[in-house]
Design brief:
The complex is a heterodimer of chains A (801) and B (161). By secondary structure, chain A is of the alpha+beta class. Chain A folds into three domains: 184 residues, Aldehyde oxidase/xanthine dehydrogenase, a/b hammerhead (Aldehyde Oxidoreductase, domain 3); 251 residues, Aldehyde Oxidoreductase, domain 4, CATH 3.30.365.10; 148 residues, Aldehyde oxidase/xanthine dehydrogenase, molybdopterin binding domain (Aldehyde Oxidoreductase, domain 4). Chain A is built from 20 helices and 29 strands. In chain A, the strands form seven sheets. A seven-stranded mixed β-sheet of chain A has the order 3-5-1-12-9-10-11. In chain A, 58% of the residues are buried. Chain B is of the alpha+beta class and 161 residues long. Helices cover 34% and strands 17% of the residues of chain B. In chain B, a hairpin with a 2-residue loop joins β1 and β2. In chain B, α2 packs across α5 and α3 packs across α4. The longest helix of chain B is centred in the last third of the chain and has 15 residues. The chains are: A alpha+beta (801), B alpha+beta (161). Chains A and B meet through α1 and α18 of A and α2, α3 and α5 of B. Bound molecules: FE2/S2 (inorganic) cluster (FES) (2 copies). One FE2/S2 (inorganic) cluster sits at the interface of chains B and A. The site of one FE2/S2 (inorganic) cluster has 12 residues of chain B, from loops.
Chain lengths: 801, 161
């Protein structure tokens, strides 16, 4: 039985009620009197010099307030910051001088309604002089390739080879070496709500008010930098409900543009992307990666060493993307005891829309590459795929476990979680089912994946890839205030995109104070009121916001105990706090209840301990556990603090005619330490698996030979519906983290980090009797169908007429 | 710009106004009627976030013009609870099962589920999945949504003692 009263119990969330009644408040629901609307003119070319821009017809349309070009923006704003120092790469909300991808924003039109703005956008005439462009990252690296940013002089944005441990020695010792190549196609999280932002320049106070559908660390800081404003001249309202993000809702160029327009026009301005603007030019695509992985291993399946090369097509502006190659350094060996690693990370610019953070920040593709390589070792040795994994698992007694790249994993019991999941899946019976299907001539396969979810997010990847960046502080904060009538209100410094932060903070605060979480109010500060924080990225809020809330609540308890000690004339260590009241351990009748304590704090200064601040409030700012260290010269670093584990077992069947993959069964074992709210954690896992199935089978931002995005709508970019997602069985396990107040770890990326690998494993198992391997995600039905057809043709040829 | 008079009954209350002929029903509901519970996800008829009941039938309000709904009765998510604010059994089951995260698809999901229960009070699991298949959710993987509809089905089937 859990030691907790509220933590880990099934409880209704605090947020859901407003959403089921239609009372959420998203950015598109924010309307201000006299608000104007933005529409955009998009580049039709993958690369072209911008000549004359004729805005006269657009400006003449009644209701149009302004037509703004990149040249104007560049005069009045600073380029958007990106993670690397890249001379000559200047990123502005609107293209300046040349366009670099199809969909890039060229001109912004502001009008009294979105309809008028769109009409006017169609009247803008832009002269383009098409330039040579490059869409393939390998071609972009070739000498003489067209340059995406001519002023930078190269399409190579980042390359470094890290060597951790004795790779050469371990490779020499190993009995076998096996190379594999896999490709992770370009997809993203694609929330159902597009990005939107509303800004208003408050002239009376010289203050820019911003409402945005945002999930981004240091968002106000970046706006201040770009708009050349003091940080305290920007007020971001974090109480806007965000309609899904899972990493991508960065919208920095949107926000700089709208902030600039609001200040220029002295009127509220709003930009809500339509779906096409979002897909082609929202700068929200995810990793697009080619991996070469070579494992060195022994005949018994022991993996000694790994070489991995990851080449990422990051599109046109760096944004957060090269850094998505850095974060996986903290879990570069997955759950395995691999002793040495060589990792070459290469980020290449091409004429495509930019990448942004996607759920897991690069870890899901890396996990897919590792897991595929492990499956191939098993096939090579004729070993069971799970046996190879178990042979290499870090064991529960080995934690904290330092991996070759310098990160300590906090805790885990991978073997136990896998064993539990195998039992729940009745793996023997599942295999029998697969084999029975095969006996009927069907293509059936079982997939496995055993992966880690790094959580608790610090930004250690930034100094790792950019020595000029020495940020090691990744705090989160919470204020808890007890009002004069004893009510408790917690204030948090972030917006929420479905993660349930109000429930999280109420549950943790309630647990600490012994109050029903339903009675605790949780509000979102705006960025000027807020204590410092880093937003809900990197599966960090259960850890960091939960930790901050616990810290603040504990301070409240300490204060209450001090007040009681003073009034009961007893030493603090002879007193105990229970559900708001303080009891004397030596005399249970001597007690002060919550109302009395609160009244003393708020009203009776004469009864307060000398020197104590009046009222009853606390703030807690918590640095990420194990944070505060810089990488070593050879690139070893403590990446995220906490490591959740997930293992997937999936049964799939492939239609021989169409190549359609039907998922028959799915089991996921999950250990994210102490769970605060089980429904929330389970929901994220289900959603993560569904997203992973999408990335593995359907979703792709494909570009054609003319550099045009061919998936600009939900008709060509296929999000899985309820038909494609099976009933999923989750198997919970808890290995508490020693680093967090309640033993919690992160779970916001769960499911997604292993599901694509598991799908690939299952599809390849299904195709293995035919000798077909597919090494490219997404495994579109058409791709599988093609492989099957090729095989048939091949067999036909060999058998002869 | 052409404008035209429109009369609607929205959640049981009459509404009339003069709107641009090209105004979609969803924009009309959100901007003119002032009910922002109905959401816009794609504006091309795929995601279902904009679903409303039109004379009891679920429709995508991004795919029709407000003027086409003239004289019709519309139910939006704001109209699903009882007039006294009591949640509908489906709304309550959505809350109980945490059938949502960000809540953006939720109004459309609830509309689809209400339409299902209205025409088939005892749907099979297959019926439930079929009824929700036109609505995309990116947060939940659908499982807790399906669970919620099942729970509501069970509760509504229970005969009060
Ligand atoms: S907004 Fe109507 S179906 Fe997507
Ligand atoms: S709850 Fe977020 S899209 Fe469904």
């Amino acid at each position: 039985m859990s030691e907790y009263r509220y933590v880990g119990r099934k409880r209704r969330t605090k947020e859901d009620r407003r959403f089921i009644t239609g009372l959420g408040r998203y950015v598109a629901d924010v309307t201000l009197p006299g608000m104007s609307h933005v529409a955009l003119v998009l580049s039709p070319h993958p690369a072209a010099r911008i000549g004359a821009i004729d805005t006269a017809a657009a400006l003449a349309l009644p209701g149009v307030q302004a037509v703004v070009t990149g040249a104007e923006i560049a005069r009045h704003t600073n380029p958007i910051l990106h993670g690397l120092a890249l001379p000559g790469v200047r990123w502005y909300p609107l293209a300046v001088g040349q366009v670099r991808y199809v969909g890039e924003w060229v001109v912004a039109v502001v009008a009294a309604s979105r309809h008028i703005a769109e009409d006017a956008a169609e009247l803008v005439r832009v002269d383009y002089e098409p330039m040579a462009w490059v869409g393939d990252p390998e071609a972009a690296l070739a000498p003489g390739a067209p340059l995406v940013h001519p002023d930078h002089g190269s399409n190579l944005f980042y390359r470094r080879t890290f060597v951790w441990g004795d790779v050469a020695g371990d490779f020499a010792k190993a009995h076998h070496r096996l190379a594999s190549k896999v490709y992770w196609g370009r997809s993203a999280t694609v929330p159902i709500e597009t990005f939107g932002v509303v800004a208003n320049w408050n002239r009376g106070n010289d203050l820019l008010d911003v409402w945005a559908s945002i999930q981004m660390p240091k968002y106000p800081d970046q706006m201040a930098h770009c708009l050349r404003l003091p940080l305290n001249a920007i007020r971001v309202h974090y109480d806007v409900d965000v309609g899904g993000s899972y990493g991508v809702k960065r919208g920095i160029k949107h926000s700089v543009l709208v902030g600039y327009l609001a200040r220029k026009l002295l009127m509220p301005v709003r930009l809500i992307e339509d779906r096409l603007e979002n897909m082609v030019g929202g700068d929200m695509h995810g990793p697009d990666r080619r991996f070469d992985v070579t494992l060195a291993f022994d005949a018994d399946g022991l993996i000694r060493s790994m070489k991995m090369r990851a080449l990422d097509d990051i599109g046109c502006y760096p944004g957060r993307s090269p850094l998505q190659l850095a974060k996986p350094v903290g879990a570069i060996v997955g759950p395995y005891r691999i002793q040495s690693v060589e990792y070459e990370a290469v980020a290449v610019a091409t004429n495509k829309t930019s990448q942004v953070a996607v759920r897991g920040f690069g870890q899901a593709p890396t996990n897919y590459a590792i897991e595929t390589a492990i499956d191939r070792v098993a096939a090579h040795l004729g070993m069971d795929r799970l046996a190879v994994r178990r042979r290499n698992f870090i064991q529960s007694h080995e934690f904290p476990y330092r991996i070759p790249s310098g990160t300590d994993y906090d805790s885990g019991d991978y073997d136990a979680v896998l064993t539990k999941t195998v039992a729940r899946a009745k793996l023997e019976a599942l295999i029998a089912r697969r084999d029975a299907l095969r006996a009927e001539g069907r293509l059936a396969g079982i997939g496995f994946a055993t992966c880690l979810e790094p959580s608790g997010g610090n930004g250690a990847f930034e100094p790792l890839f950019n020595p000029a960046n020495d940020t090691t502080t990744w705090m989160e904060s919470c204020q808890v205030k007890v009002d004069a009538l004893g009510g408790v209100t917690a204030t948090i410094a972030t917006s929420t995109a479905g993660q349930g932060h109000q429930t999280l903070v109420a549950t943790v605060t309630g647990e600490e104070l012994g109050f029903d979480p339903d009675c605790i109010r949780v509000v979102h500060a705006d960025s000027l009121q807020a204590l410092p924080g880093n937003s809900p990225v990197a599966s960090r809020m259960a850890i960091m916001l939960g930790g901050a809330a616990a810290g603040a609540a504990r301070q409240i308890k300490e204060r209450v105990l001090a007040i009681a000690a003073h009034n009961l004339q007893r030493p603090v260590d002879r007193l105990v706090y229970r559900e708001g009241a303080v009891f004397d351990l030596d005399n249970e009748l001597r007690t002060l209840n919550w109302a009395e304590l609160v009244r003393i704090a708020h009203r009776k200064y004469h009864q307060m301990p000398p020197g104590m601040e009046p009222g009853l409030q606390a703030s807690y700012v918590w640095e990420v556990p194990k944070g505060g260290t810089m990488p070593t010269a050879d690139g070893r670093v403590q990446m995220y603090p906490c490591y959740s584990f997930e293992c997937h077992i999936a049964l799939v069947e492939i239609d021989r005619g169409t190549g359609q993959v039907a998922i028959r069964d799915w089991f996921m074992g999950h250990d994210c330490g102490t769970v605060i709210n089980p429904d929330i954690v389970h929901g994220m896992s289900y959603g993560g698996i569904a997203h992973g199935i999408g990335a593995a089978l359907y979703e792709e931002f494909a570009y054609d030979e003319n550099g045009q995005l061919v998936a600009g709508s939900f008709v060509d970019y296929l999000l899985p519906s309820v038909h494609e997602i099976p009933e999923i069985a989750l198997v919970d396990h808890c290995t508490p983290s020693p680093l967090t107040p309640m033993g919690q770890k992160g779970s916001g990326e769960s499911g997604y980090l292993g599901a694509p690998a598991a799908v690939a494993s299952a599809v390849n198992d299904a195709l293995s009797p035919l000798g077909i391997t597919i090494d490219r995600l997404p495994m579109h039905p058409s791709r599988i169908e093609q492989a099957l057809a090729d095989k048939r043709a091949d067999m036909g040829e060999r058998e002869g007429p | 710009m052409n404008r035209q008079a429109v009369r609607l009954t929205v959640n049981g209350k009459p509404w009339h106004g003069e709107v641009p002929t090209r105004l979609t029903l969803v924009d009309c509901l959100r901007e003119e009627v002032g009910l922002t519970g109905t959401h816009v996800g794609c504006e091309h008829g795929v995601c279902g976030a904009c679903s409303v009941l039109l004379d009891g039938e679920p429709v995508r309000s991004c795919l029709m013009f407000a003027v086409q709904a003239d004289g019709r009765a519309i139910t939006t998510v704001e109209g699903l609870a009882a007039p006294d604010g009591a949640l509908s059994p489906l709304q309550d089951a959505f809350w109980e099962c945490h059938a949502l995260q960000c809540g953006y698809c939720t109004p459309g999901m609830l509309i689809a589920a209400h339409a299902l229960i209205a025409r088939n009070p005892a749907p099979s699991d297959g019926d439930i999945r079929e009824a929700l298949a036109g609505n995309l959710c990116r947060c939940t993987g659908y499982q807790q949504i399906v669970d919620a509809v099942r729970l509501a089905r069970r509760r509504m089937g229970e005969v009060p003692p």
